[in-house]
Design brief:
The protein has 110 residues and is of the alpha+beta class. It is built from five helices and five strands. The longest helix is centred in the middle third of the chain and has 15 residues, at 33-47.
């Protein structure tokens, strides 16, 4: 069983990068895990193939997603961030979710 990911502190921002066929990715930044989760769920629903919609809704309702049919990631056991990342990998591979600390922000500004 995978160990739960550490809970982020209040100073961590979540950055969602969405690949684009035109070459310029869309970037959204969130200060809370809840806001990031809602954005990612909306984008997964929008980007996934129509025949996968029922499966996605079932994964969201059950709060469990399986990327390969063998192992699964549970939001209850692994945490929201791990669940949302697994959901994006399984159904919307154009999405990438990262975390940034204030120190990384300062480094990016230089």
């Amino acid at each position: 069983m995978a160990s739960p990911e550490p809970q982020p502190s209040a100073s961590i921002r979540f950055v969602v990068i969405e690949g684009s066929p035109f070459g310029t990715p869309k970037i959204a930044s969130f200060s809370t895990e809840t806001a990031m989760r809602e954005h990612v769920l909306a984008r997964v629903r929008a980007l996934a193939a129509p025949q996968m919609q029922a499966r996605i809704e079932q994964a969201i309702a059950d709060r469990v997603v399986s990327e390969d049919g063998v192992s699964a990631t549970s939001e209850v056991l692994a945490g929201t961030l791990a669940f949302v990342r697994a959901l994006a990998r399984a159904y919307a591979p154009k999405l990438t979710i990262t975390e940034k600390t204030p120190a990384q922000d300062e480094h990016d500004e230089r």
